[in-house]
Amino acid sequence: MTKVEILDQLIEKENGYLITAKALEAGVSKPSVSKYVNDHKMEKVAHGIYILDDVFPDELFVLQERNKAIIYSGETALYLHGLIDREYSHICFTVPTGYNATHIKIKNKQVRYVNPEIVDMGCCEVASLSGNKVHLYNKERCICELIKERKKYEVQLYQTAIKEYMSSKDKNLSRLVEYAVKLGVRDEVMMYVEVMG
Asked: Which domain, by its residues, includes 81?
C-alpha cells in the first residue's frame, strides 16, 4: 500500500480528518503528510490536525484529539445524549484534579476538576453532531452531576433533563444509584427514582 493510500484510508476512517500523530503511527513520515496536505489543499484546524475542504470543523472532536484527558460533561454531555433540547451555551468538560487545563481555558469553555479516582466513572463514547466519536459521561453520571450541581442550572433545563432521563427506555437505575452513592447525592437521587422511576 502506498503512503497516499494509507492516508486516504486514515481520512476515510476519521470522517475527513487527517491527524498527523495517527499518520506517523501508520508509518507515514511528516514530509509525506505535509505533501499530502498541500496536494489536497487541506485546512489546518489545530496543530497536527487537518480537514478536507468539504468537511465542517467539529470543535468537540478537535478539542478532544488535542487533549486526550478531557471527558465532556455538563450541558455538553446532556445535549449529546438528547436529554436537553437546546444546544449547550458553552463546551463543558471534566479533567482529573491536577491536570493543567490553562491552555484550553478559552471563551465558551467550562472546565471541571474531579478526583482522579472517579474521573473515568461512567465514561462512554458517543457520536458528536458531525458523527465523530467523542468521550463523555453516560446518562447516569450526567444526571447525578446535574442533581449535585442543580443550583448552577436553569430550572427548565434541569427539569427537562430529569424528565427525559426518567422516561427513557435505556435508563439504568441501579447504575444511577451506584454513581449517586459515589458522588454523595444518594438521597436526592432516590427521591427522583421513587417519584418518577
From this structure: 61-196
Specify whether the CB–CB gap between 81 and 61 falls below 8 A. no
One domain for residues 79 and 109: yes
Q: Any residues with CB less than 8 A from the CB of 19 and at least 6 apart, and which? A: 10, 48, 49, 65
Asked if 92 and 77 count as a contact pair (C-beta separation under 8 A), the reply is yes
Residues 43, 66, single domain; the answer is: no
Residues 153 and 107 in one domain: yes
Q: Would you give per-residue pLDDT tens digits along the chain (197 residues)?
A: 899 999 999 999 999 999 999 999 999 999 999 999 999 999 999 999 999 989 989 999 999 999 999 999 999 999 999 999 988 888 999 999 999 887 776 667 889 999 999 999 999 999 998 899 999 999 999 999 999 999 999 999 999 999 999 999 999 999 999 999 999 999 999 998 888 76
| Domains: count for the chain | 2
Mode of pairing for the β-strands spanning 17-19 and 49-51: antiparallel
**pTM beyond 0.85, yes or no:** yes
Give the Cα separation of 148 and 94 in Å (integer).
15
Q: Among 35, 57, 79, where does a domain finish? A: 57
